[in-house]
Structure formats: structure tokens, C-alpha cells
Amino acid sequence: MRRFPIVIQIDIRSYQSQRGHYKHMLDLIDLTKTYGQVKALDRMTFSVQPGAVFGFLGPNGSGKTTAMRSIFGLISLEAGHVQWKNAPITPDEIRQFGYMPEERGLYPKMSVMDHLVYLGRLHSLSTETATKRAQALIDELEVKGGGSAKVESLSLGNKQRTQIAAALIHEPTLLVMDEPFSGLDPISIEVVRGIFKKYAQEGKTVLFSSHQLEVVEDLCESVAIAYQGRIVAWDRLTTLTELDKDLIIKVQDDLDGNYLNQIDDISILDNHEGTFRLRLARPELAPVVLHRAMEFGTLERYEVARRRLSDVFKEAISTSGLSNSQWETRDDFDEDLKFKAEHQTELGHDLKDEIS
Ligand SMILES: Nc1ncnc2c1ncn2[C@@H]1O[C@H](COP(=O)(O)OP(=O)(O)OP(=O)(O)O)[C@@H](O)[C@H]1O
Asked: Ranges for the ABC transporter domain (predicted)?
């Protein structure tokens, strides 16, 4: 009997999926895009799982918006591709996605209700269904003035709530939101957080970018951190913020932390009026610090804590080995504005004025 060599091909992503680690719906694979001198995307790769909220982080200009736009086919990639359910995304699937872009676009003269129904109709909803859903969203998001309010009369936060309703009107299978929390007050943030959570609990996929790390920390199950067009960290939040890495300690009346002198392998992350957050190189250092503190004075606070996302973020960037030489130059910025002006579809705002 002739024997054929057996070739076993393991797709690492499906393997991870079987193990339940990265059970993914959306894959961004090796995305590459250059604007002039700037590599907006430099083989950017990450996956988003369903049923959980995914936070997309990164400093300004790290490629988040470009990556999100590529999901909708809004930019031509030089290399790489985006997959939905392990296959290239079809135009039909894109129509079922919801997107809130960075440049918000609402029709100022329309009422909130008319606006939402119009967008619902564009997604092939009947007027009746669109009206029902629009009303439910207006109620849920508590848009001030309700459906009859004119968009132009709304405050920034209420415009934002309307924009979020617009992205949700057709009950999308994938929700992609570019900075949905910027400009929102704490109560609005709470409302939107609730909506994202509910959406994810229904098994849908939610990806959003944000610079508000405390919101991301409270809301997301997984995060990816982009820097210079690459992903420099990507994992479950609980893995990234490792348990028991930081120590929070305060000794009464000691604002300078003199008891910390001469203990090696600890770094001070911050000091708020004598309450120190320390990073320990090894967990065994915790009792050493405790002992020194108690020798020194009365212990007011002692707590072993998770790392903060802001520290994970800073460390991911500083240890990425990438320099910031690629950051925006004035020329790139102008190119960006020109591009936006050419593609501006929103009403009432002409970016050409900004360029001249
Ligand atoms: N149309 C364009 N023309 C020229 N440069 C562009 C264009 N779009 C993006 N860039 C550049 O690509 C880089 C990545 O931009 P992108 O908007 O994706 O970053 P971002 O992470 O979303 O930033 P932010 O957090 O500030 O919104 C930046 O240097 C930006 O100036």
C-alpha cells in the first residue's frame, strides 16, 4: 500500500477558538495602509469575539480609525484583509453592521425621529418597525426632547446619543463605534455602557475605540492596544491587568514614603498624599514592604491590587521597541484634512475652509 505523507495544517486562530480562548467573529489580519510617509496600519492583526465588549485603544494617530474604516471597505488596503465568521466580508454583511464614525454626521434640520426612521428605511426596515425601534432607542438613550426634537437644537451629548441610536436602528450583528464616549457626561456614559453590555449579552459583537481607559476598564472583556499601526498588546483584560501586581499602602503622617527607601525591586507608580501605589518585581516583596511600613508607623492602608489599564497601556507602548519618529508631521496632517474634505458627506460642515 502506498503511503502518503500526512500534512497537518493547524490554523492557530481556529485552534484558539476550539480552546475557547479567542472565540472570534471578526478578524483583522495583517492590515497595511500607508499615507505618504506614515504607515497608518503596519500589519495590524487582532480578532474580536462575540458576546463580549472589545476595547480598541492606542494613542492619537495609532491607526484605530483607519482599521475600523477598513472593516467597512472604506479604505483600500495595500495588504491584509478583514474576515467575518472566518470568511471575507460580503456587502450584504456590511449592511447588517452598525458603524458610528469619528466624524459624526447628522442632518441638522431633521427631527430625531425622522432621522432615525430614515436611516432605518435605508436598512430596509418598514416604516412601522423603524418607528417602533426609533422610539425604543430614544427612550432607552433618554434623548432630551424626544423624537420631535430637531437635531440642530440638541446638545453635544444628545447628538451623540442620537448618533448611537442611528448606529443601532437596524439591530446590527456587529457594532463598531469610533470614540462613542467622547463628549458624554457620566450619566450618558452609564447609559451607553448599559446598551453595549446588553448588546454583547445577546451574543453580538461590539468593538469600540476610546481614550477613556477607566470606562474601558469597567466595560470590556478584551482589549487591543495599537501603536504606530501595530498591535502592541491584545488579550483579555483580566490577563493584561494581572492580579496581585501592585501594592497600595499608606502609613499615617508619612507623605514621603521614607519606609520604602532601601527596598530594591519596587517602583513607585504614584503617590497621592502618602498613599503609594507600588509595582513589585516579585510577590514576595509584599510582606517585606509591610514589615518596613509597620516598623515605621501606623499602617492606614494596605491592599494588593490589580494593575491599572493605564499602566498596562504605558508599558505596552514603552516596551514595544517602536520609536515615535513616525508620528504625524504637518504635511501628513494636511493630507488628512484634504482627504476628509474630498470625502466629506456630512451636511453643513465644509472642511475645505479648515485647509485654506
Ligand atoms: N486620509 C488620510 N490621509 C493622510 N493621513 C492619514 C489619513 N487617515 C489617517 N492618516 C494618518 O494615519 C495615522 C493613523 O490615523 P488614525 O486616524 O487611524 O489614528 P487613530 O488611532 O484613530 O487616532 P485618534 O486616536 O487621534 O483618532 C495618522 O498618522 C493619520 O494622520
From this structure: 26-253
Q: What's the grid cell of residue 161?
A: 446619543
Residue nearest to atom 25 of ligand 1 (CA): 60
- Could you tell me the distance, in angstroms and rounded to a whole number, from the CA of residue 56 to the centre of ligand 1? 14
The answer for residues whose C-beta is within 8 angstroms of residue 216's C-beta and 6 or more apart is 55, 57, 210, 223, 237, 309
The verdict on ipTM greater than 0.95 is: yes
Query: Which atom belonging to ligand 1 lies closest to the Cα atom of 41?
Result: 14
88-107 per-position pLDDT tens digit: 999 999 999 999 987 767 88
- 339 CA closest ligand 1 atom index: 1
**Which single residue is written with the C-alpha cell 450619566?**
187
Sign of CA dihedral 20, 26, 30, 35: negative
Residue 210 Cβ contacting ligand 1 at under 6 Å: no
Domains of the chain with bracketed CATH: 22-240 (3.40.50.300), 243-310 (3.30.70)
Distance CA 131, CA 120 (A): 8
User: Is residue 336 lining ligand 1, measured as CB closer than 6 Å?
Assistant: yes
pLDDT band at 345 (very low <50, low <70, confident <90, very high): very low
d(CA 53, CA 32): 25
Q: Which atom of ligand 1 is nearest to the CA of 102?
A: 27
Q: How far apart are CA 147 and CA 247, in angstroms?
A: 50
- Asked if residue 232 lies in contact with residue 322, where contact means CB atoms within 8 angstroms, the answer is yes
Q: Could you give the percent of the chain with pLDDT greater than 90?
A: 56
Is 38 near ligand 1, meaning CB less than 6 Å away?
yes
